[in-house]
Sequence to fold (230 residues):
Amino acid sequence: GAGVSQSPSNKVTEKGKDVELRCDPISGHTALYWYRQSLGQGLEFLIYFQGNSAPDKSGLPSDRFSAERTGGSVSTLTIQRTQQEDSAVYLCASSNTGIAKNIQYFGAGTRLSVL
Amino acid sequence: QKEVEQNSGPLSVPEGAIASLNCTYSDRVSQSFFWYRQYSGKSPELIMSIYSNGDKEDGRFTAQLNKASQYVSLLIRDSQPSDSATYLCAVRVARIYNQGGKLIFGQGTELSVKP
Fold:
């Protein structure tokens, strides 16, 4: 497809379980971003990948959160030992850097519910 | 002080009126500014981007940027019920021009356009 693709669209898990969320960016986009949107917290930055550079992990809330991007394309966000406060919509975005305007396009998101 | 602040909502305007949405930011290094629209249960979609002081018009939408005062606004002319959504102001934080960078979002302003 032409847009950012995320899977699954919904995920329900039990507290303490690990989850993996997947993001497939727009073809050719070199930068990939993860954000989280929860009630009362707005949309907050988690992590950002650009090309072969070290990722910007400054937004990850704890060491239970990690992400990787393989082959400069697909990314996986992993949350270990999930907690109820991890319940949120996780949004992925991609952009084409090297162009000053750097527009970020968002996927439909993964709604995570931790019971 | 939050990095990006938006005027609190909800904002209610009658159909056909002008809706004015405001946003202030704290980081003077910020280079790029964006307005996203988010319908309930959907992901953010880009409405406007602006990079230079002044006005930028696109159809019924006008973005205004004043870097000296550190504010950016969005005007929606001839508001329609379909404009009812949450509007997110976002600021791109990038220390190197022409490189990608994370977006810092405001809390959003909910707009309701009454028929």
In short: Chain B is about 0% helix and 55% strand. Chain B touches chain A through 24 residues (CB under 8 Å). Chain B has a mean pLDDT of 90. The radius of gyration of chain B is 14 Å.
